[in-house]
Amino acid sequence: MTVAEVRSPWDRVRGHWSARSWLRMFHVVTGVPLGLLAGLLIVAITALSVIFVWTVAVPVAGALLLFWLVPLLTRLQRLRFAAFLDVEIPPVPRRRLKGNVAMRLLRRTRSASLWRQVAYHLASPLISVVGCAGVIVTWSGALVTGALAVQFWVLGGGWRGVPFALLSAALLVAGPWLAQGVSSLDVIAGEALLGPSVSDQLAERVESLRESRAEVIDAADAERRRIERDLHDGAQQRLVSLAMKLGMARATFGELPLPAKEMIAQAHDEAKQALKELRDLVRGLHPAVLTDEGLDAALSGLAARAALPVRLRVDVPRRVSPTIEAVAFFVVSEALVNVAKHARATTAEVVVAREGDLLRVVVHDDGRGGADPGGGTGLRGLAQRVGSVDGTLKLDSPPGGPTTISVEMPCV
Amino acid sequence: MRVVLAEDSVLLREGLVWMLGSAGMEVVAAVGDAEALLRACDEHTPDLVVTDVRMPPGHSDEGLRAALALRRRRAGLPIVVLSQYVEERYATQLLSTETSGIGYLLKDRVADVAEFLDALRRVAAGGTALDPEVVAQLLVRRHSDPLDRLTPREHEVLALIAEGRSNTGIADALVVSEGAVGKHINNIFAKLELSGADKDHRRVLAVLRFLKI
Predict the structure, then answer these.
(1) Alpha carbon separation from B180 to A210, B167, B170, B172 (Å, rounded)
(2) Where is the Response regulatory domain positioned along the sequence (chain B) (predicted)?
(3) Is the pLDDT confidence value at B195 over 60?
(4) A243 vs B contacts (CB less than 8 Å)
(5) Alpha helices of A232-366 — where are they, by DSSP H?
(6) How far apart are CA A319 and CA A24, in angstroms?
(7) What letter would DSSP give residue B75?
(8) How is residue A235 annotated by DSSP?
(9) In the predicted model, what is the mean pLDDT of residues A74-92?
């Protein structure tokens, strides 16, 4: 509800009986039949279910009817709020219920939002009837006293008509206020009971945050691949071409002066070195073989290049999402780097297995142990990257070894 | 020697054409994608194919797949695959049929012109040219079998055989006499229990054993 800006006393007076006020009154009045109908139906169904509870069938049918009826009544009430007061009550998010029919029924009876809606439909006739009665009494009172005042004035009652006129004016002013009060009360009850509860809103917020986070992670992963491709198609090719030309110059220089020869040889070596560095850098971003052939191939390359012998077992019959693949690759890559750097291990073992909706990555080494997640940024970075896809990382590294890192990530 | 070249980077393709041309090879077709490579090979029946792994339209492993298709069409067609990164998996796929007339090199190798041209000639002559980096990867990985019985020197020799070098090439690389190389190779054959009559055949078998293919 927006309150129009009040500029002059006339605006104030006019605003008091404006269309908005009339709509509020309509809202209060229309609340009566709807509220009574809803209240009666709910009470009747409940009463029948209680009376015939021994038949079992009646209460079940009653419950089913109630589950169908309550959302319908809520929808009608929501329409009423929107039509007369411009108040949009957000719909209660419908959760997808799992399980068979009986389970769903039981879950539905446990749903707090359903009982809140029932509470509103039971409270609504009270608010509407009392409010409507109040409004009608006020307006008719204003009319009656007004008529009396006019009557006294016409019949020459003199000053005796004045109190009636004052009363009539007072009631005329009070009418819209009362309607406003009643409709405000209705809005408070409606928003509290018909809309989503705090936990519903939180659940929805969590869901939307989860979605936006997944999008951010996917975007970051896509960006990594884009950079890899851009470098591959651009800078790397140019450098290869440059190194090749310098190589040809070096192979074919005949009578160049010595300093020039040396310069070309140095440039050639530097170009090759730059090429190697760029290759190592780009590789770490997102190896192309991971996109092409999946985890098995990418991890084989990783294990082969590791500084120590690595036994690798990959059992992923169906490929997981590119993001999860990228995280799994990163985990193994970082873990093997850590092992080579700190563990003083002689061998390492990597096991990657998909178990239903779970991708499990285990990196084990026979090193000296004592790895501490708080000690360096490496393990913390790993945990963060795993956490970003709702995965968990467990570290088992007693002093003296061995060390096992287990990661579990949900995958579809 | 008639060469078909496939490389999507124009800069590098032109450079390679120039380089091969100045080395006395005739580049009959230089194309930019895998489809065109297959067509060019049908048209020109080259003596050697040089192809990039990653090519349009998918910028994935099109070149490699084209190479495998070409080998299926014409057994023994010498092919050198150039790759930005050498991957054991790609190497295994390439070598799964036979190892002769196959080269798998890191793209950076074109910078060392003489060595690169040497590798091309070796493959064209039916030999093998595996990038030292692939060989190193395989060497680290294959460690729990008869290969364990090899001495470090024999390992080195076997790695150089796998790269596709001849005895002379190995002798040069290790700075030893050719006779010493021959002795090492015989030891390797004995330790890998390869007692076949034909020497070259045993060489290939040793490499296959080494690559575990």
Answers:
(1) 66, 10, 10, 11
(2) 2-122
(3) yes
(4) 108, 110-111
(5) 237-252, 258-285, 288-293, 295-305, 322-338
(6) 60
(7) T
(8) I
(9) 82
CATH of A290-410, one of 3.30.565.10, 3.40.50.300, 3.90.76.10, 3.40.50.720: 3.30.565.10
| CA atoms of A289 and A101, how far apart (whole Å) | 47
Question: So what's the pLDDT on residue B49?
Answer: 94
pLDDT in tens, A60-80: 888 888 888 888 888 888 888
Taking CA–CA distances from B52, the nearest residue in chain A reads A237
Looking at the complex, report in whole angstroms how far the Cα of residue A412 sits from the nearest Cα belonging to chain B: 24
Q: CA Rg, chain A, in Å?
A: 38
**Residue A105, C-beta contacts closer than 8 angstroms, at least 6 positions apart:** A60, A63, A64, A67
Q: What is the pTM of this model?
A: 0.62
Residue with tokens 């150089």: B160
Q: CA geometry: angle at A241 spanning A235 and A243, to 5°?
A: 100
Three-state DSSP string of B100-112:
CCEEEEEHHHHHC
Asked if the C-beta of B175 comes within 8 angstroms of chain A's C-beta atoms, the answer is no
Distance CA A326, CA A90 (A): 39
| Cβ–Cβ below 8 Å for B111 and A288 | no
Nearest CA in chain B to A294: B89
Q: pLDDT at position B119, please?
A: 92
Q: Checking phi first, is residue A10 left (phi over 0); if not, alpha (psi -120 to 50) or beta? A: alpha
Q: A272–B108: do the CB atoms touch at under 8 Å?
A: yes
Classify each residue of A334-349 as buried b or exposed e, where b means 16 or more C-beta atoms within 10 Å of its C-beta.
bbbebbbebbebeebb
**Chain B residues within 8 A of A250 when measuring between CB atoms:** 113
The dihedral formed by the CA atoms of A323, A329, A332 and A335, expressed in degrees to the nearest 10: -70
**What mean pLDDT value characterizes chain A?**
83
Q: Which residue's entry shows tokens 């006293």?
A: A145
Using the Cβ of B24 and the Cβ atoms of chain A, whether some distance falls under 8 Å is answered with no
Q: Name the pLDDT band for A376 (thresholds 50, 70, 90).
A: low
**Residue A269: both structure tokens together:** 């070596």
Query: What residue segments make up the domains of chain A, in order of their start?
Result: 9-196, 200-283, 290-410
DSSP A155-183: TT-GGGHHHHHHHHHHHHHHHHHHHHHHH
Looking up tokens 């120590």 gives A308
Map out the domains of chain B with their CATH numbers.
2-142 (3.40.50.2300), 146-211 (1.10.10.10)
Instruction: Give CA–CA dist A372/A383, Å, rounded.
Output: 12
Residue of A nearest to B56 (CA): A233
Residues A320-351 have pLDDT tens digits of 988 899 899 989 988 888 888 888 888 889 99
Q: Which residues of chain A neighbour B88 with C-beta distances below 8 Å?
A: 300-301, 304
Of B61, B110, B138, the CB nearest to A292: B61
pLDDT tens digits along A11-58: 767 777 777 778 888 888 888 888 888 888 888 888 888 888 888 888
Asked if residues A348 and A363 have their Cβ atoms less than 8 Å apart, the reply is yes
